[in-house]
Write a structure and sequence with these properties.
It is a single chain. With 152 residues, this protein is of the alpha+beta class. The chain has two domains: 38 residues, Met repressor-like (Arc Repressor Mutant); 80 residues, ACT-like. Chain A, domain 2 (Alpha-Beta Plaits), CATH 3.30.70. The protein has four helices and four strands, in the order ααβαββαβ. The protein has a four-stranded antiparallel beta sheet.
């Protein structure tokens, strides 16, 4: 684990009160953890903007009665090649399905694919969530404590 450094932050009293309210609502143990998460979020946004390697999930809700939609969804995933790691499909009711597509690649490639899929007729909702690929977490130091194998 990397060494901790201390720093001070000056904030207006009203802003600090709102921040304390937010971190209590989210269940943080202290301000430091909340600030670390905010910094990680900002660094993730920079990674996405810089077209760096990220992982993402695209969650879709769609009407499976739309002719050809299932085939177009499958074709889009095949066209993406190795960028698509896995997908899972759940039947919500007689008309609607939920699908989660897990991807890894450059942020702009993933965003392009997600936009293409969300634009398909019959896709009612589509939410893309991008996150760090894991390599830059904890300042690039990989935790040694877990034992499951990694694929490359």
């Amino acid at each position: 684990m990397s060494q901790l450094s201390r720093t001070g932050v000056s904030l207006e009293e009203d802003l600090l009160k709102e921040f304390d309210r937010l971190i209590a609502k989210r269940g943080y143990q202290n301000r430091s953890e909340a600030i670390r998460d905010l910094i990680r979020e900002a660094l993730l946004a920079e990674s996405v903007d810089s077209n760096k390697a990220v992982v993402g999930t695209l969650t879709l809700v769609y009407d499976h009665h739309i002719p050809g939609l299932s085939e177009r969804l499958t074709a889009a995933q095949h066209d993406a090649g190795a960028m698509v790691l896995a997908a899972t499909h759940v039947h919500l009711d007689h008309h609607y399905c939920l699908e989660v597509i897990i991807m890894k690649g450059r942020s702009k490639d993933i965003q392009t694919m997600a936009d293409r899929i969300r634009a398909l007729r019959g896709v009612e909702l589509g939410k893309l969530v991008l996150t760090n690929s894991g390599k830059e977490l904890k300042g690039g130091v990989h935790r040694q404590s877990h034992t499951h194998p990694h694929s490359t």
